[in-house]
Amino acid sequence: MANSWRTTVLADRHRALGSTLEDWNGTPTAWTYDKEVGDDFIAIRTKAGLMDVSGLKKIHLVGPHATGVLNMVTTREATKIMPGKCSYTSMLDDDGKFKEDGILYRMGPNNWMVVHGGGYGQEILAQAVVGRNVAMLFDDDLHDMSLQGPAAVDFLARHIPGVRDMKYFTHMQTTLFGKPITLSRTGYTGERGYEIFASAKDTVEIWDGILDGGKDLGIVPAAFTTLDWLRVESALMFYPFDMSELYPIDGDASGDTLWELGLDFTVSPGKTGFKGADAHYRAKGAERFKIFGVLLEGETVAQGGDEVWSGGKKVGTITGGMYSPLMKQSMALARLDVPVATHGAPLEVRTGGASVKASAHNLPFYDPDKKRRSAVG
Asked: Residue 143's closest CA among 214, 204, 228, 223?
């Protein structure tokens, strides 16, 4: 098992499924089970899968200055997020470079929950609350189970009235199997899905209840690695795997702008005054690269770090690749030089000692109108 400083009460359930529990974000995480990742991928795309994503960090901000702190350190206009709503956001450093993304949940007038991944969100928030009338609590008791796929709503509708009416990026307090939960209409798969936040003492019972009660709908436990496949198809960023912290740019310091990562949409229109704002706006039009899609011929899967070439020179780096058994295509996310980040531009990917013909492709590959993840009813 990983030598991690955090825990998950689902560890025994993961071991029973064959996981050796590797570390992610300080948490023992079920990267794989004793089955093919492709099976979990197909289940989530066609039915539903249940994942333990408790390695995400959950931070509560409570007090009169909570909204002001979030307005200061995130790119979203927090005052416009009402209780019961949530919003995807970015956090920058003073130079306007991306340091974290996450979701802001407004739980009440002066009560927020921030859920983020492996970046610097906790450190940024910890610095921002000093001297302000706000309490910050890192909550490692709260576990996070992600139920994703088209059958997820069918299962939850058996137990939670009104769940079909929940809109994308909303949340509510309810119960499941008699246990109190926060149910969030969010996910990281490009499918219609939900995240279930529950206390540690209730998590195992909820996990078992979903898998036992959802068998007739095809709901299966899905390993964390499945997200690597889903996120490539759906063009979802994963710090630091799509960033220069992992794949440095020759002759340049690490750190990327939202314009380069395609995350500029996380800035609320007209918002100024947040950390890194001035540098962010100055960086528009000065992109060194763009995150873009690459389609490879055949079934060769590009690996992170593979080089992308065009016209006899290197023009990019693969950040993640997969072969989609449903779309029957090999695809990848890549950091491409701006001139070749154009749909249809001819490319080649050098992977495993071979050169594979490829082309640039608009993102996302899957469900380009994003109708599946936002569906209601």
From this structure: 204
Interval 20-45 mean pLDDT:
97
SS3 call for 142: coil
Residue 297 C-alpha from the chain's centroid: 27
182 forms beta bridges with: 173, 197
Neighbours of 5 (CB within 10 A): 9
- The one-letter code for the residue type at 65 is H
List the beta strands (DSSP E) in the chain. 22-24, 27-29, 48-52, 57-62, 86-92, 98-108, 111-116, 135-138, 143-148, 171-176, 179-184, 193-198, 219-221, 290-296, 307-310, 313-324, 329-336, 346-351, 354-361
CA-CA distance, 24 to 13, in Å (whole number)? 17
Domains of the chain and any CATH numbers: 11-57+141-232 (3.30.1360.120), 235-361 (2.40.30.110)
* 3-class SS of residue 372: coil
Query: Are 99 and 91 within 8 A, CB to CB?
Result: yes
Confidence of residue 1 (pLDDT cuts 50, 70, 90): low
pTM over 0.70: yes
Helix-helix angle 37-46:226-234, to 10 degrees: 50
- Among the listed residues 188, 208, 176, 149, the one whose alpha carbon sits nearest the alpha carbon of residue 14: 208
What's the full length of the chain, in residues?
377
pLDDT in tens, 152-182: 999 999 999 999 999 999 999 999 999 999 9
168 burial via Cβ count (<10 Å: 0-12, 13-18, 19+): middle
Within 10 A of 141 (CB to CB), how many other CB atoms are there? 12
What is the 3 state secondary structure string of 23-77? Answer: EECCEEECCCCCCCHHHHHHHHHHCEEEEECCCCEEEEEECCCHHHHHHHHCCCC
Return the closest-CA partner of residue 13 out of 227, 255, 212.
212
**Residue linked to tokens 């990026």:** 169
